[in-house]
Specification:
It is a single chain. The N terminus is likely disordered. A hairpin with a 4-residue loop joins strand 17 and strand 18. An eight-stranded antiparallel sheet has the order 1-2-7-8-11-16-17-18. It has about 375 residues and is of the alpha+beta class. Helices cover about 35% and strands about 30% of the residues. It has a single domain, classed as T-fold (Roll), CATH 3.10.520. The radius of gyration is 24 Å and the shape is globular. Bound molecules: adenosine monophosphate and magnesium ion.
Length: about 375
Amino acid sequence: MKNFSKRHSAPILFVLLWGGLFCLLLCGCGAQTSVPCRYADTAMGTVVRQTLYAPDEGTADSASDAIKSLLDQLEEQELSWRLETSEIYAVNEAAGSREGYLLSNEMTQIIVRCLEVSREAEGAFDMTLGSVVRLWDIDSWAAVGQSGDFIPPDSELLRQALGNSGYDRLKLEPEVSGENGEILQARIFLPAGMRLDLGAAGKGLAMDRILDSLKDSGISGAVISIGGAVLTYGDKPDHTEWKVGIINPMEPGEYMGILSLKGQWCVSTSGDYERYVEADGIRFHHIMDPATGMPADSGVRSVTILTRDGLLSDILSTACFVLGTEKGLELARQYGAEALFVTADGETVMTEGMEGLFSPAER
Ligand code: AMP
Ligand code: MG
């Protein structure tokens, strides 16, 4: 047997080498970590793109499937205002009731954090704008703007819807508290007519849940986009930086510039080009000023926020859009977040930390 294996070792090696090469060509992303696996799908009403680096294709496929199902679950069981299966739907249904609604631990944390930012942002972020958002019928607008015979809501109806909003009118009654007095679980009481809308926080939450699921997945590096939100994680096999393009609001097919990032980051952008309608030459976009119930008009076309934490980046991008550059920068700094504003005249204004990460496109 010894002689046989020796005599045949050269041809066997030859077959193995060619077999290996053939397999590499066939498997695409599968056989080595230096080739990423890419996936595109829709979830949470938007396009989800995943680029995953894994030791093998099977690992990448199962991580990608897990991400897809957690996004579907997040929408169906927690966030949707439309689906009867979701917790937000149940909270809204209980508006005006004496017993309110007992939140899950997870939703308690989400709402506590949203309320905290609402207070710090002087109400520029307000998850109680549900009735205003419904009246504008934002969800029926195409993801990319459309022109046509859009008629803005009647001002009296808008006044009523705004009267039903206000984060400071929402009540949380702690049911379970932690050792340091923090609220772990609460009962929520919405006044009659109030509706929660977590549209400005959903993609951020999705990034946090994806980060959790990546931790034990065998994935060594990933970049995942959910609509205008982008998550980077881990490292590429060649250790180069992740590149995230910042869309030019004036020309949404082009980039303002590129962020170069290492490791884990959550990048959220709120822009007036993401979802809008136009009528008589006026653009109505999807980010509302809670003071007026009208699309915010703070001299900003887009805001990009960079934090380690998804929920925070998403809430801050919406709040900073409404606040404008000066107050927005102040708010971002207060949370240790990096921010980049594109103003109505096409200028960029950013935090010091962002300057080191952003390379403007040549124009
Ligand atoms: P984003 O694209 O993250 O800025 O979120 C915008 C979405 O959040 C809209 O489609 C609405 O559903 C909702 N929304 C709009 N304006 C506000 C606001 N000022 N505060 C909280 N949610 C808002
Ligand atoms: Mg947001």
